[in-house]
Amino acid sequence: MMDRLEEIESRDRTELAQFSMHWAERVTWLIAEVKRQRKEADVTFVNAAHDAVAKLEVAEAQLVEKDRQIRELLDAKDCSNCPNQGWWQGVNRNTGEPEQVQCEYCYTDPNSVFNVRNRIRQALAEKGAADGR
Is residue 82 within 8 Å of residue 88, measured between CB atoms? Predict the structure, then answer.
């Protein structure tokens, strides 16, 4: 009877030891998995932070460009020959008919309102084309 009891106790100890080893392995695996996922999350967070910083830098550059364009427009010189449109209504000397006359000032002065507006329109069109608009 004693042998039988010792045999049962031995088997129980063996099963308990195997059970303990199984759960120790499981806990070790879970800890490693948590560490791996945490590292992945950290990498994902860092990548997202880098993307956000890059987008902020682009937005800042765009704001700087808009500020420059606004200042350029505010400093632009009005034309005394036409309403800043690059032409005025004249009369053809030969026929007496009305004709559109190109404004020399608007086209030649780089700081004329006409030229500044055209540069800004061109920059916006290029940006729109680059953005796929």
Answer: yes
